[in-house]
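Q: Convert this sequence to structure tokens.
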Amino acid sequence: MKAVNDRGKEVTEYNNKYWLMLSEAQNAVVYPTKGMQKEEMKWRQWADDWLVHLISPNVYRTTGEALASFDYIVREGKFGAVEGFFAKYVGAAAMFIISKKLKSRHNLQDDVRQDLYKAVNDWVAAIGKNRKFMGGDQPNLADLAVFGVLRVMEGLQAFDDMMENTKVKHWYRRMEKATLNHDGRA
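A:
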């Protein structure tokens, strides 16, 4: 469906993009308890609509963090000396400026870390104490979506701060192991 968003821009929305097309038998296996499917869809959409928008303002929060982020990108991307120099300094400056605009656009707090901390703590609270993952004993698509968003920060100060100042560490480590082992609902 085509619509106009809050900023007056025409966008295309797919109303069923979080819905899995399963037979009744498959649906009963993938979602054994009532409400599980809607919960998974809700948190997948939350990862797309909120959590992902917290990344840039957090990893490019200060000029030092922007430089460190681009240093990591250049090092992992195996840039040449000249390309790496320009990518690091021009990229860091550009992303620092863009992150400030994103902070404003998404109405984030002055200390954007607080929004990140609240978001991941809300996620952990939604999983609760009686489940390993949102999907129960195995990860579901919501777990995978949130893990994917948070994983992009690994190796950066924002990730270290998040792990130290939130309750997400144990879930995140379980997700690392589960993804390495290819665990999850079939």
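The first helix runs from residue 24 to 30.
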